[in-house]
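Title: [Solved] Protein FAR1-RELATED SEQUENCE 5-like 3D structure

Original question kept below for reference.
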Amino acid sequence: MKDRMWSSDSNKVEDGLNVGDGVNMEDRVDQVNLEDGVNVGNEDDHGDEVNVEDGDGVNMNFTFSSGSFEPFVGNEFDEVEDVQTFYKAYARRRDFTMRTNHMKLSKDDRKLIRVDYVCTRDGFRHESLKQKERKILEPAETKIGCKATICIKKDGERWIICKFVPEHNHDLLTPRSTSLLCGHRGVTRLHKKLILTLNVSGVPTKKIMSVLSKESGGDFNIGCIGKDVKNYLENKRKNLFEEGDAQRLYAYFLDRQCKEPEFVYSIQVDENECMGSYFWADARSRSAYQYFGDLVTFDATYLTNIYKMPFVPFLGVNHHHQTIMFGCALLINETVESYIWLLRTWQETMLGRAPSTIITDDDKAMAKAIAEVLPNTTHRLCLWHILHKFSEHLAHVYNKFLEFGKEFHHCIHETIMTNEFEEEWSAILVKYGLIGNEWLQNLYTQRGKWVPAYLRTTFCAGMSTTQMSESMNKFFKDYVRSSTMMSDFVH
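Solution (posted by the thread starter after getting help):
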C-alpha cells in the first residue's frame, strides 16, 4: 500500500507537496503505538506521570510537572516521532484523541518539513456522505469542526512547535471512556502472552476478553477491545506463515502432484502476494464425483489448526450410502469472496460439473456465493441445525406449552403438500402468539430451502442435514489439536 495522503478538506495534493487527511501517524511513523496510555487510578486523579508502552512492550515514562506537560510554541524535539508520542500522551491525559491531518514535503528533496496534528473531531462530514442513501441508520456525527491542533516544522535538525491551539468546541470524555477510543487502544506485552496461551488452548475471543477483564479489574482497564485481540491474532498468524509453514505445505503439494498427476491443488494469493486459502483434491475424489456428485454437503464449522482457519470438506455418499470426499479446503476467512473463490476452484477441478443439490448450514456469505457460482443447483439448508435452534429461540413457548413441540414437529415432518404446511404453520403462529416473531419470519421466507414439503421432488440421496460433515469433524478432533501446523494437518 503506497503512503499517499491528502487534505481532509480539499482531498487534493497541494503544490508545496502537502500531503495529508485523516492518516494516522501510528501507521506512518515506525508504528509508534501507545499501548498502555495513561495509568489512571480513578477518573478524578490525572497524576503527572504518563506511562507509554510501544509495540514491542518497551516502557517509556514521561514525567512532567503541570506546566511542562502543556505544549507551547517554540517547544523543540529531536524527531517527529517524539512529537507524535508527546501529543498523543497529552491527548490521553486531556481525554481526547488526535490524528495526523496534514503533512508537507519539501520541493527539493521531498523530505518531511511540516506536520499538523488535530483532534479527531476536526473538520466536517462530506456532503456526499450525508446525501448517501443508507440501509441502516446514519452514524452519529463525529466531525464538528474542532480547532484544537498542534503544528510542527523542521528547523535544521530539530522539530519546533509553531502553532498550538488547546481549546475544543465539544465536551471531553472521562478517562475511563478515553481508554476505549481507537487512538488510545492497544494490546500490551503481558496481555499478548496471555492471549496467545488462551488461543492455543482453543479459547474463543469473547472468553479471552472475559479473562482479560477479570485480570485487569474491569473492561475499562483492559486497554483494548475484542477487535484488537482478533487483529493481533490475525497478524500473529501471518507471521507464522512467514516462518515457513506455508512454504512446507506448498512443497508438499508439488511433491504430491509429481507422484500423482491427477492430484489438483490451488492457493489463493492476496494483494500483498501472501498465501491465503488452500484447496486440494486427489484422483480418487475427482473420480468419485463423476459418479456420485449429484448431492454435496458443504460445511465450514470446524477450526482445525493453529491459525483458526475453517476446514471445509466437500462430501457426498456413494451407492452404499458411505461417506466419500470430493475435495477439501482451508479458508483464510468466511467471507463471500473466499467462498466464491473456493466454489469456482472446486467446480473447475470437477471439470465444470455442478451438483444437483448442495446442503449447507444457514450462512449468509455461503448462500450468496452459491447463488452466484451455482445458480442452477438446489441449495438446501441443514434441517438439524435449524431445528436445533428452535429450543433456543422459542424456549419460553416450549416451557409454557407442552404440546407445542409435537405440533411443530408434525407441521414440519408430517405435512406432504406445501398448502398443508402453510395452513398448519399459520395456525401455530396464531395459537401461540408468534405472528410477530422475527426469527420465525426469517425462517418462513427461506422455507423452500429446509421444509421437507417443498423438497419432495428434489434429489437429496436421503440426506437432509450436514451430518456427514459433523462426523468428519468428530474424526479430526481425535487427531488434530489447536496447535497443529497447517502443513502437518494436510499430511
